[in-house]
Amino acid sequence: MNLPLKLTDRKRQAIVDAAIEEFRVSGFESTSMDKIAATAGVSKRTVYNHFPSKDELFAQILHELWNSSMAQEHQPYDPAVPMREQLLSLLWKKMAMLQDSYFLDLARVAIAESIHSPERAQEMVTRLSRKEEEATAWLRAAQADGKLLKADPVLAPQMLSGQLKTFAFWPQVTLNQPPLDAATQKKVVEATVDMFLAYAN
């Protein structure tokens, strides 16, 4: 059972949410702490009590994006479970994250800022790349078990993830399209897995 957030925690979250909204609309450089305070419904002093600078506030957004990606439970390769079943499980977890509205908001801010100031978002890009390495480890384990031998262990996980993001991430982040409905999610996940297996087997 989740306990209600304390007032100070609610204010902190309101500030982060307001920053996400303002960074999305105006960009990092054009967003002031005054505007964030107004959107959050708190005083500017309260904002600075939680985040001494705008850079620290942006760092918190990146931290939450990282935590969202890490919330996915790691799924090790299981030789007793059929390939298709394991891949479907992997991609459904990925799909759930990519279609989460809060994750998408965080990603929009981080990606937009990485275009204007690559160094500011470089740490996050590096961290998310490490997260993708879990899929590489899974694939290498499958290949050691004599499965998916045609797949390149470096390229294949990127291909698998990229196919999913083509439909379930980039249109939502860059074109502000709505999340996929349940039926379309199912089609995308199953088609991605079946295409991958046809390539890798």
Strand count, sense and barrel status of the largest sheet are: none
Q: What would you give as the CATH superfamily of the largest domain?
A: Tetracycline Repressor, domain 2
**How does the helix and strand content classify structurally?**
mainly alpha
Helix content: over 70%
- N to C succession of SSEs: HHHHHHHHHH
**CATH second-level architecture of the largest domain:** Orthogonal Bundle
Number of H/I helices: 10
The dominant shape is: elongated
Stretches with pLDDT under 50, minimum 5 residues: none
Average residue-wise pLDDT = 86
Question: What's the number of extended β-strand segments?
Answer: 0
- Radius of gyration from the CA trace? 19 Å
Which CATH first-tier class of the largest domain would you pick? Mainly Alpha
Strand content: under 5%
Cα separation of the termini: 45 Å
Whole-number total of structural domains: 2
CATH topology of the largest domain: Tetracycline Repressor, domain 2
